[in-house]
Amino acid sequence: MNAILFSSMVTKMLPDDYIGFTFFVGCMAMMAASAFFFLSLSQFDKKWRTSVLVSGLITFIAAVHYYYMRDYWGAFQESPTFFRYVDWVLTVPLMCLEFYLILKVAGAKTNLLWKMVFWSVVMLVTGYFGETVFSDQAALWGAISGAAYFVIVYEIWLGSAAKLAQAAGGDVLKTHKILCWFVLVGWAIYPLGYMLGTEGWYTSILGSGSVDVAYNIADAINKIGFGLVIYSLAVKSTGTANS
User: Among 85, 40, 78, 39, which residue's Cα sits nearest to residue 62?
Assistant: First the structure.
């Protein structure tokens, strides 16, 4: 009964509800991307199937969360912070996994994977603490989260991941660089959104406000885009192997 009542509360969307609209479009886009990645698995060599499968899992997990976030927004007109962080804590480590999977051809070890997963979890957990649990110390927790983010950026641009990509060369290097730009530019919306949504020294400079629309668009671009870059590499590598 509660589920029926909840659904009835969110059946109507106002024409100017851009946040609700982007939640809905984001959900549909990521569901479509998941179907695309899953249905394309059979065309790839075995070594690339895991990478494409992970791309599908990333967009599928996001689509499920966006389904619930859309309903949450419709019912309460509040930013679904909890659901968003649960989505991120599952999908961001998987996006880090993609770096490891494509760099295995150059000899990447599991310590690279666990290093990136560890810092991604630190980034997200401390960000959640700053936004919700310890919001009176948002600047401190945001600084810790930001530091973890820059460790990941350093690792993929200048650290061992970058060196492995250089060693691999060719399409792997090109793909790695594109994914690096996704992390540096595409992920930059998230710390910006954090600062706009919390109080700290930065508030007098940036102001405050909701960035749910920007989050929703960035999520779709980053997650689907990540997957399409991996898909493109898998297609090229499979085509080269079969030629």
Answer: 85
3-state secondary structure labels for all residues of 68-118? HHHHHHHHHCCCCHHHHHHHHHHHHHHHHHHHHHHHHHHCCCHHHHHHHHH
| Separation CA 53–CA 181 (nearest Å) | 22
CA distance 66 to 28: 9
Q: How far apart are CA 85 and CA 68, in angstroms?
A: 13
Round to whole Å and give the CA distance between 30 and 159. Answer: 31
Let me know: does 183 contact 152? Beta carbons within 8 Å.
yes
DSSP-assigned letters across all residues of 31-49:
HHHHHHHHHTGGGS-HHHH
pLDDT in tens, 154-185: 999 999 999 999 999 999 999 999 999 999 99
Give dist(CA 61, CA 86) in Å, integer: 10
Residue 34 has a pLDDT of 98
Q: What is the pLDDT of residues 104-125, one digit of tens each?
A: 988 899 999 999 999 999 999 9
pLDDT at 2: 52
**Distance from CA of residue 201 to its chain's centroid?**
27
**Is the pLDDT reported for residue 6 higher than 50?**
no
Residues 6+ apart with CB under 8 A from 203: 195
Contacting residues for 53 by C-beta, under 8 A, at least 6 apart: 37, 38, 41
Question: Are residues 124 and 93 in contact, defined by beta-carbon separation less than 8 angstroms?
Answer: no
